[in-house]
Target: Enoyl-CoA delta isomerase 1, mitochondrial
Amino acid sequence: MALRAALRHKCGLSAVLTQLAVGTSHGRVSMPLLLSQQRNRSTASRVSVHFDQSTGVAVMYMQSPPVNSLSLDFLTEFCISVEKLEMDKGCRGLIITSNQPKVFSAGLDIMEMYGKTPERCGEFWKAVQEMWLKLYGSNMVIISAINGSSPAGGCLMALTSDYRIMADNPRYNIGLNETQLGIVAPFWFKDTMVNTVGHRSAELSLELGLLYSPSEALKIGLVDQLVPEDQVLTTALQIMTKWLAIPDHARQITKSTMRKPTIDKLMSSREADVQNFVSFITRDSIQKSLRMYLEMLKKRKA
Ligand SMILES: CCC/C=C/C(=O)SCCNC(=O)CCNC(=O)[C@H](O)C(C)(C)COP(=O)([O-])OP(=O)([O-])OC[C@H]1O[C@@H](n2cnc3c(N)ncnc32)[C@H](O)[C@@H]1OP(=O)([O-])[O-]
Model:
């Protein structure tokens, strides 16, 4: 009851305490749950958060069909959910995974960058920054349970985690493939990649817009562990237990020491970064590249 009241007080949003049992398909496990998320009256929730108070671990399922692309609506709901967990002192660990088949996240929603006004593009980019800041600077242990492909912004999301576990399925890929769309990953995408795989691998990866198979991603350190597809979430829960055995304050200060310079760099230039994105993405030549890429995606499907 106290937690329920606290959540209401802190978030100003409805928090629903409920006991649920989650099925065992797609690597999901059964556990008692606290479901705490924003309810949207007109649309289905794009994220679903299952919080086990007894372990202090929340599992966040992205469920925005068809491919969990990061639209403004998705990012808004996602950030509210992360913020609520961050404010809940009982929540020490967060696992991010997907409820969509074959895809973790297709990255930024291309339709948010194509044919939109500069104002709308700016609003969208602020939301992308917000997602990165919330995840990369989180006090929680964050583990990505990557149960499908994860290109571009999907890869960025995974890169913000403390640990990445990917399904060992050669049909999936992960990487910052922005140059293949004719667009440029901003400095903070690049810095997050460099911090993870080192300068040379990041340089090759970003310039060529490489998408890596799970085994290639493991080789360069883009992911930390591969497991059979049906074990991604259960492994994430096991690994989380190890991370939570470290005293929070020591781990959090260490994490902050590692990440603060990268975070400060964006914090000190957020507005300039928005202006830079808007002027770049609204160029005719970039809009043409995006249109061609969208057509290619449709053709590939046909
Ligand atoms: C400076 C900026 C930095 C930018 C960073 C980014 O993240 S840029 C983003 C870079 N991202 C990429 O390059 C990833 C591009 N996507 C893919 O490579 C594949 O979709 C997949 C591997 C994620 C899933 O394969 P699959 O065979 O399971 O699925 P499928 O291919 O059949 O697609 C189903 C439907 O979803 C649609 N749609 C897909 N992605 C996006 C999107 N991001 N957005 C919007 N829509 C998207 C697709 O058109 C199709 O629509 P339709 O025809 O039904 O109306």
